[in-house]
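Hi V.,

Quick status before I head out on leave. The structure for the redesign project is tokenized and pasted below; the design run finished overnight.
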């Protein structure tokens, strides 16, 4: 109903439709599911006690295997009080003899959002059903402290729940006002500025009715499949051994450009092939938050391997295509820091030439230094130095060509143990890393040569021509990416080749750290 109302409002943006939409959303917020504890008991924040209380409220027997998975841990003092902030709650449910049905998951899912010191939850071989998985998704969405979630080796691959009658197949929603422990819907309704007597006054018109309606967002229907967990705001997500296919991983790829919190994704031991790897690689080009990706022990071959490593490389593209690449990065940053706080402006900056990129000073066409503009002039011109890391990694390589990076956020990539990867594909990756190390060494040498021309305690008065600095343009490589860990172990790959890859990675990381510590002259 909310989706239909939003579509109708978009087709007809008149005041009457907007007013009806606001009132409809207010009604939906009022109809949000009520916590079973409301009016019965006050949750304590202790996951063990609250789970037992919710079971008592629903007239259910507690499951001992779930109670065994709840534990308190204090890493500093064993005799600390229960309310000590150092105490954390661990939830590790594993190897259940009976599948975790909806009736079993419901009390635990209701109790999890009230536990403020639950940072990690693990479900190992729990045979989750479709309904119990969606309840877990809802609990993770509402939990204020949960940062890491593991749902590994689920044997049933989200099968149907036999305890739920066919006529009672419920639909599950995520309510934005409950996201990550936000104020409950009662508080939101109580904070509405409109008073009843004011709402009845006809003299104020439609505009006043719009202002009196409380701000509300429509609920989000939990989608099918594992990608629903991307909506929960989890930072670390592990889905090992769940039989995730290319079709399912494409759903992840569609969600990654809007995954603002996900930093680590573990998809080890699934059924991902080259098609899924290509979809993930394309999504990485529009995501600047994910830093760790594990796709080991899947069905990826050399084509998928080169696609995932290739998304970390630079590209020489026309200025128009570089603007499209930048737009993907900016759209993601706009979700993180909207408005004026976004480091990437609407218009791209004036990218420097390669000579300017090395020397750090704008150069005239004849090789001499550009004179600074007179005071009061040139203020509206685009700045040469960009504010965002992605823009700072770009420079011009021709009249209408820009060397632009793709993904610069990924720090760790594990593609080990994939059955289709051959020595030929690993050799190509080793060549890419070797070329990257050589290009970084060239950039380091060129910057050292340019810095040597600056008088001690002074400033360079002119920029030497490119010929005197031997500024040979390196080929596009992985020089701009942030990758520091690449795992490619495979029985078919010789140890000498893996050692060469490790040596190249060490050289790349060392030079990148040096260049970051010593900016352009």
């Amino acid at each position: 109903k909310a989706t239909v109302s939003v579509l109708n409002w978009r087709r007809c943006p008149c005041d009457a439709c907007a007013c009806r939409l606001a009132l409809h959303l207010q009604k939906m917020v009022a109809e949000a599911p009520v916590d079973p504890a409301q009016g019965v008991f006050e949750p304590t924040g202790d996951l063990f006690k609250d789970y037992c209380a919710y079971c008592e409220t629903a007239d259910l027997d507690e499951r001992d295997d779930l109670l065994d998975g709840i534990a308190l841990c204090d890493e500093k003092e064993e005799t600390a009080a229960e309310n000590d902030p150092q105490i954390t709650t661990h939830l590790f449910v594993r190897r259940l003899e009976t599948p975790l049905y909806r009736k079993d998951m419901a009390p635990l899912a209701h109790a999890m959002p009230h536990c403020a010191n639950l940072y990690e939850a693990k479900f190992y071989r729990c045979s989750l059903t479709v309904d119990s998985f969606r309840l877990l998704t809802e609990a993770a969405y509402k939990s204020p402290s949960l940062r890491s979630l593991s749902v590994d080796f689920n044997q049933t691959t989200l099968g149907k729940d036999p305890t739920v009658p066919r006529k009672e197949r419920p639909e599950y929603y995520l309510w934005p006002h409950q996201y990550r422990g936000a104020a409950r819907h009662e508080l939101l309704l109580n904070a509405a500025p409109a008073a009843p007597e004011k709402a009845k006054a006809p003299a104020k018109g439609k505009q006043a009715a719009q202002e009196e309606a409380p701000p509300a967002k429509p609920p989000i229907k939990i989608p099918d499949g594992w990608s629903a967990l991307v909506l929960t705001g989890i930072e670390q997500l592990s889905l090992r051994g769940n039989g995730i296919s290319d079709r399912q991983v494409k759903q992840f790829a569609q969600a990654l450009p809007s995954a603002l919190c996900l930093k680590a994704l573990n998809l080890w031991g699934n059924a991902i092939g080259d098609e899924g790897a290509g979809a993930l690689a394309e999504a990485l080009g529009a995501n600047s938050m994910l830093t760790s990706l594990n796709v080991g022990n899947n069905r990826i071959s050399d084509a998928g391997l080169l696609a995932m490593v290739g998304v970390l490389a630079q590209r020489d593209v026309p200025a128009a295509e570089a603007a499209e690449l930048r737009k993907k990065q900016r759209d993601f940053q706009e979700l993180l820091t909207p408005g004026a706080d976004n480091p990437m402006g609407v218009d791209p900056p004036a990218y420097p030439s390669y000579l300017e990129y090395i020397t750090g000073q704008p150069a005239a066409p004849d090789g001499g230094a550009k004179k600074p503009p007179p005071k009061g002039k040139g203020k509206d011109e685009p700045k040469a130095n960009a504010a965002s890391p992605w823009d700072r990694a770009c420079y011009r390589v021709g009249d209408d060509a820009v060397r632009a990076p793709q993904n610069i956020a990924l720090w760790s990539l594990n593609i080990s143990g994939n059955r289709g990867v051959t020595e030929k594909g690993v050799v190509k990756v080793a060549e890419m890393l070797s070329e990257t190390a050589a290009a970084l060494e060239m950039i380091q040498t060129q910057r050292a040569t340019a810095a040597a021309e600056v008088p001690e305690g002074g400033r360079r008065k002119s920029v030497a021509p490119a010929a005197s600095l031997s500024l040979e343009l390196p080929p596009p490589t992985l020089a701009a990416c942030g990758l520091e860990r690449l795992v490619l172990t495979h029985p078919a790959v010789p140890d000498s080749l893996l050692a060469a890859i490790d040596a190249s990675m060490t050289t790349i990381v060392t030079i990148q750290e040096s260049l970051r510590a010593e900016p352009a002259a």
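Above is the designed sequence. The radius of gyration is 28 Å.

G. will cover questions while I'm gone.

Best,
W.
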